[in-house]
Amino acid sequence: MEKRTTHIGKYYTSLESMKRRMENSYRSEGFFGPYSIASHEKWREKASSLLSSLLGLDKIRSGAGDLSFNERKGETVMLADGIRREHIYIDVEEGVTMPLYILHPIVEPKGTIICYAGHNGAGKESVAGDDSSSAVREKIEKYGYDYGLFSARLGYTAVCPDPRGFGERREKAMEGDEEEKFLRSSCKELANMAIGLGFSLMGLLVWDSMRLVDYIKSREDLSSSSLIALGFSGGGMQALYSSALDKRIDKTIISGYFYGFEDSLLELNSNCQCNYVPGVFSAFDMGDIASLIAPRPLAVQAAKGDHLEGKRGMENVMEQMEIVDRVYAIYGKKVYLDTPEGDHAFHKENLKEILSCL
C-alpha cells in the first residue's frame, strides 16, 4: 500500500526562540521596589494603565455604543434548599447581551460574590449548580464547579454570569445541543475577531466584568458594600485581571490560575486563546498582575498536583507568590494561600475558611 505521509525524524520548532525572547524582556514593567507604599502606588498607576492598554480596554470602551442595561428577566426558580435563582439578561454594550443567574440565599446576605465560570462546564450552568443535565453534573463532580451555589449556601448572594463565548453566549461555530459544543466555548472565534480589531478577548472579559459591577451597584437589593470576585481556572483568570483593574472589587479568590507565564502558558501553549494578550508576557508575570490588587484582600488556591502549573509544579506557583507577597508585606498584610492535594479542581470544602480569613 502506498504511504500517505512521510516520516519526519526531527522537528525544527520555535519554542526555544520564544522562551529566549520572553526571558530577554522578562517583567520589563514589573515591580522591583523600592518596597514602600509610595513606590508601589506610583508603579500601580503606571502598570494599570499599561495593562489596560495591552488588553485594548480604551478601544473596547470607545466602540461600546449605547450602555443601557436593557434588563430583561427570565424565569425565577426556588431551589430545594430555599435559594432563589433569578435568570437575568443585561446588555454590556450595544447589541451584546450577558445572561446571568443570581442566587439569593435564604438568610440576610453577607455580601455579593461574582462567580466567574471556567472552561468545559457549560458556563454559568455548572457554577450555579444546575445539574439537571448529566454532562454538567459530571463536570461539577470532577472540578467542584458549583461554587456559585455553594457560596449562596454559605449566605452570600452569588452572581453567576456567562462569559463571552460560553453557555448562552456561544458564537455560531459552537452553537448547538451536542455535548461537546454545550460544555465548551467559542473563545477561539472571539479571540480571532478581537485581535483583528486591535484588542483582546481578555479585554472583553474584563470589560464585561466591569459592566457587571455597574449593574450590581445599580440594584438596590444587591449588596455591593462587600463585593468579592471568585473564580476557578479560566474563572480565576477573569477574577485576577478584573480585580487588578477594577478597584470596586473588594476581595478576590483565585483558584487553579496562579503560576508563571513561561511554564504554564508559553510551554503549555495549547491553552485556550483567552489566556493570551499581546505583549503581556514581556511586561509582567502573574505575580505582578496580582500585585495590582494590593492592598485589597487576596486568596490563592493552588492544588499541589495541578497539571496546569507546569513541569515544576508548586515551585512555579511559589515564585509568583513571592512576587505578590513582597508587595502585600509593604502594607503589613498577607496573601492567603490554600494548597490542597489533588489535580486541577476547585476545593470548595475550604471556601468557608478562605472567606473568613479575607
Q: How much helix is in the residues?
A: 25-40%
In the predicted model, the low-confidence regions spanning at least 5 consecutive residues are none
Kindly provide the radius of gyration, computed on alpha-carbon positions and rounded to a whole number of angstroms. 20 Å
Determine the structural class based on helices, strands and strand pairing: alpha/beta
Distance between the termini: 67 Å
How is this fold's topology laid out?
Elements: H1 15-24, H2 37-55, H3 57-62, E1 72-78, E2 84-93, E3 96-104, E4 112-116, H4 124-127, H5 134-143, H6 147-153, E5 157-161, H7 179-183, H8 187-196, H9 201-218, E6 227-232, H10 234-245, E7 251-255, H11 261-267, H12 280-283, H13 286-291, E8 298-301, H14 314-330, E9 336-338, H15 351-357
Parallel strand pairs: 4-5, 4-6, 6-7, 7-8, 8-9
Antiparallel strand pairs: 1-2, 2-3, 3-5
Helix pairs in contact: 9-10
Key words describing this protein structure:
nine-stranded mixed sheet; 40% helix
Describe this structure in words.
The chain has 358 residues and is an alpha/beta fold. The chain has helices spanning 15-24, 37-55, 57-62, 124-127, 134-143, 147-153, 179-183, 187-196, 201-218, 234-245, 261-267, 280-283, 286-291, 314-330, 351-357, and strands at 72-78, 84-93, 96-104, 112-116, 157-161, 227-232, 251-255, 298-301, 336-338. The longest helix is centred in the first third of the chain and has 19 residues, at 37-55. The radius of gyration is 20 Å and the shape is globular. The N and C termini lie far apart (67 Å). The mean pLDDT is 96.
